[in-house]
Specification:
By secondary structure, this protein is of the alpha+beta class. It is built from four helices and 20 strands.
């Protein structure tokens, strides 16, 4: 009975050793199955920005309402027209004048001419210099003192919605790039003019309104258009750049792999990095620009002088060698 148990234990132990050998061989094969692609550092410009969306809006939206109720006789401006302060925009008659003029018209041209000269219409004057963005009435239409007959805007701006996690990085005077969803080819630069002191909650996210004044207002700008906005935080020009995947982080230190040529394994070198964008990263220190940088396509890289080593957890630690903690 004792011999049978010993044989069963021996058979199980041999099977376990064989399994460990297979796993070790597979791990070694996987470690060796690594390939690289070579990338060369290049010099260029890189930017850090906050991307968000916004809306084209008038900076000052002024509704012009008549001082009297009555009938609009004539409108002298059109939408999109630029007007100056004090310019005549429209004529209208009070309710009493409209009734009197209509009665005089029935009595002939002479009577009509008399009352038109005796009872003058009321002018509507532009209170500011700006652009007509809404013309909401036509001649002959009856309006009340609560109706806006025209809307003026001194200029169009873009109001951006910035998340509270980003608002701390936004400053007055920062440059921004503006694009219209309706006209993707139209790009305009601008600067931050105002940051709202009060937040709004949009889909359970706290947002702040940021007003951006464009350097120029293209003719295609319309109030209410959706805009894509990049608020530029920093720009570094003529710096050394690598693809983001070429830099790895280990123990709080950034590294790149350098090709030593021939059959020698790549060597790992610590680098200091700067700005990053969607695809590139700035190298501040550690590379001269002439080195060939390698990016591992798969597997485990075999490094020269590497401080760490990947181990298979199923392989027992040899006697006299402690596992690093």
């Amino acid at each position: 009975m004792t011999i049978y148990r010993f044989r069963c234990f021996t058979t199980g132990a041999l099977a376990a050793i064989a399994l460990l050998g297979i796993l070790t061989g597979a791990a070694c094969s996987k470690k060796q199955a690594v390939s690289y692609r070579e990338v060369l550092p290049e010099r260029g410009d890189i930017r850090k920005f906050i991307g968000t969306t916004g809306t084209v809006e008038p900076r000052n939206r002024l509704e012009i309402k008549p001082t009297i109720a009555g009938r609009v006789e004539s409108v002298l401006v059109t939408e999109g027209q630029t007007v100056r302060k004090g310019q005549l925009l429209a004529w209208m008659s009070s309710t009493e004048r409209a009734a009197l003029i209509d009665a005089a018209r029935m009595q002939g041209d002479a009577e009509l001419g008399y009352w038109e000269n005796a009872y003058k219409p009321t002018p509507i004057i532009a209170p500011i210099t700006g652009t007509v963005i809404v013309r909401d009435v036509e001649p002959g239409q009856t309006v009340a003192v609560t109706n806006a007959v025209l809307v003026l805007a001194d200029r169009l701006v873009v109001t951006a919605d910035v998340d509270e996690t980003d608002i701390g990085n936004v400053r007055l005077g920062m440059e921004a790039e503006l694009g219209l969803d309706s006209y993707p080819d139209v790009k305009v630069n601008g600067r931050i003019h105002h940051i709202s002191y009060e937040s709004t909650v949009v889909n359970n996210v706290t947002m702040y309104k940021v007003q951006i004044i464009p350097d120029r207002v293209p003719a295609v700008f319309r109030s209410g258009m959706s805009a894509s906005i990049n608020i530029i935080q920093a720009v570094h020009r003529d710096v050394l750049l690598l693809p983001i995947e070429a830099v790895t982080l280990d123990g709080g230190i950034n590294y790149v792999l350098l090709d030593r040529g021939g059959k020698s394994p790549p060597v790992r070198r610590a680098v200091k990095t700067g700005l990053t964008d969607e695809t590139r990263i700035e190298i501040v220190e550690g590379l001269s620009g002439d080195e060939r940088v390698l990016v591992a396509n798969g597997g485990q890289a075999e490094l020269s002088g590497a401080p760490t080593e990947k181990k298979n957890p199923f392989v027992p630690t040899p006697m006299g060698r402690q596992r690093a903690r």
